[in-house]
Amino acid sequence: MNQPTQPPLWRSAYQQSRLLIRALATPTHAPTPLAASAGPLARRLPYVVTSVIVALLVPIGMFQFSDFHRMNDSVALLLSAAQALPLLLAVTRPLQAWWIVGAADVLGAVVVLLAPGLNDDGGTWPWSMPGIVGYLVLMVFLGLRETRRTLLAVWLATAAVGMAFELVSQTRSEGTHVLLTVLSGVVLLFTGALRERGEAQRRLAAQETISEQERTRRTLLEERARIARELHDVVAHHMSVITVQADSAPYRIEGLPPQAREEFTAIASGARESLTEMRRLLAVLRSESAGGELAPQPGLSRLQQLVEATVRAGVPARLALGVAPEGVPSAVDLSAYRIVQEALANVVRHAPGAETRVSVTSDGTDLVVLVVNGAAGAPVSPLEGAGTGHGLVGMRERVRLTGGTLDTGPLPDGGFRVAARLPLTAPGTTPGDGSEP
Hints:
One of its GO terms (molecular function) is protein dimerization activity. InterPro entries: HATPase_C_sf, HATPase_dom, Sensor_HK_TwoCompSys, Sig_transdc_His_kin_sub3_dim/P. The protein is α+β, with helices and mostly antiparallel strands. The chain has three domains: about 20-175, no CATH class; about 220-285; about 300-425, Heat Shock Protein 90. The protein is about 60% helix and about 10% strand. A five-stranded mixed sheet has the order 1-2-3-5-4, with helices on one face. Helix 9 packs parallel to helix 10.
């Protein structure tokens, strides 16, 4: 088997050089201000600080060119402005500003070196001190905006130009090229690390937001599956009754015509098929670790037992049941019980010892469930460590299932109120249209 051959060293070096040159020529971010996502004051701060620095560097640089190097005032002003003014551009376009500042710095060094009559009298070369300060400020903007490859290319270009001036005129060199190379490398390394740390924090925050959304969605889906499993028993009971009645009708009713017998047989067959499909659906909804629930589903008739258990947990609760459980539809009966159960569980967990009132009444069209608790009393041990559902998410889903409404919220005295209105007849619209509660 042939092993893949490695490219020659010179070819790898050539490819890396091309990538570095491309990095110098291609900005990696949009031309936006440094603190574009911050408040108004923070967005203006880079411009204010840079303007102050430019206002200081231009006259100082002009003084050094004209006084130390005996340069014409107009030329000194132009060179100094060319080295400092692009710093204002660096707030939004640091790489483009580096092109201008770098060219102006090189031009200033060449003019000082080659122009006749420009004698060095105390000035620094090849880089002036104002030029070094401005260049380091520019490195801060570059490090906070560009990638590692671009920063490496900028640093290598800085070191290469400084070394070239060292080789051209060693008699004029005062070591400023070494100073600028070291300081620019330190600044780029530090600001680049800050930028990468900030990006990592932003990615982590975004991932946490996505995880929280996924956790909320998973909780909602789990609660819907749990409600579907519970309602299976309710619907299965009615389907079983329909099947038995349709099968026994020809024997209970005398004188049925053949067409009616066939109709009852078709009804019984359809009910059996529906019941089989429901059991298949239940097998999908039930997790592998969850077994079948053998106990009957609870309802309003068991609310008194639920309230008594809450009282034993240290919560003084009272029940006012103003409706006969026998006249409530099965789905509404189960939903009302679960809403009261979850509300009382929340009182036990979050407001232990709070006086609680449970009221279930009917106005003829709706079943009204009201659970109101006061502020938390003396701390007591909760009856149960885990909840019976997923809190308000489960309540909303059960109310949505029956086409009712739910109103929850804190009270002025520090308590909490849960009010649900469940229609006793089938709602005009079918829940489950895909909209979120």
